[in-house]
Fold this protein.
Amino acid sequence: MLAKAILLEKNQTAFSCNIQNIAEDELLQQTGDTLLQIQYSSLNYKDALAITNTGPVVRQWPMIPGIDGVGTIIHSSSKQYQSGDSVILNGWGCGETHWGCLSQYAYLKSDWLIPLPTGISTQQAMIIGTAGYTAALCVQRIIEHGITPEQGNILITGATGGVGSVAIMLLTQLGYTITAATSKINNTDYLQQLGVQHFIDSKTLAYAGKPLQKEQWAAAIDVLGSHSLANICAQTQYGGIVTACGLAQGMDFPATVAPFILRGITLAGIDSVMAALPKRIAAWDFLAKHLNTDQLQHIGQIISLNECPKIAQDIINGQTKGRFIVDVNR
């Protein structure tokens, strides 16, 4: 068996990203107990960082990127699954410390997998992917905090990206009003189709602001970090919540304690990479229950392995919207 895959290699002087055929015995050298035939993967921001070598994502070389995958189990030594079962992988260090799913086959730990939920196809699962699963964790946290649609607008940064797109779809279905922060302020048709009613230019959040600002948002989902996250906290209504799940602008958080001690807001970190299995299953069940799967085709575009390097660079340059689903067999 040979698996066509993206292989990243790096030494002291050079980095390379190539499509190669990987032998089965090479795959089985990875730590795992389950061989999965991948049907679809997806291209996430973290994958783009790895493929373009613009961020310290990969920690072991060589590496097959791909933090997401969906497919069929070929064989497993675990009693959890049987041959022919359809399963999803999200995160767990794949594409970072363990070979990932931008490959026709992947050798994984069964504890990392969850069953494909009823009502979601394999293609839809990768349109959702880690981005959509992360969005679900954010929305669940906002609901658990007690934020209702009547309390005001929900701000979403990176609105045209994967997390933002799915979060908008979920919150709109649940009756919330969305304000989208986007750098593509003159091209809002895509977001309006998803249900966004209000827009702000994300550049207005990008620079240092006052510790406390006008209260505007009942809650927020932020993928940017840095000054944007600090300003969002300063603009959140009394008792509101901000969920933080990204660092596209930066890892720093140049804020004060004022919004937390004077307005009682909550800053909730959302981790999707190492989340426990029950939380993952609950998030995917939430997606299956509340997501309008007919809308997914509006945010998903299918590409091949060969197209990944170019699209990855476009993602890094901020020139994309929605989700890129990788048909690894195309």
Summary: Residues 2-116+292-327 form a domain with the Quinone Oxidoreductase; Chain A, domain 1 fold (CATH 3.90.180.10).
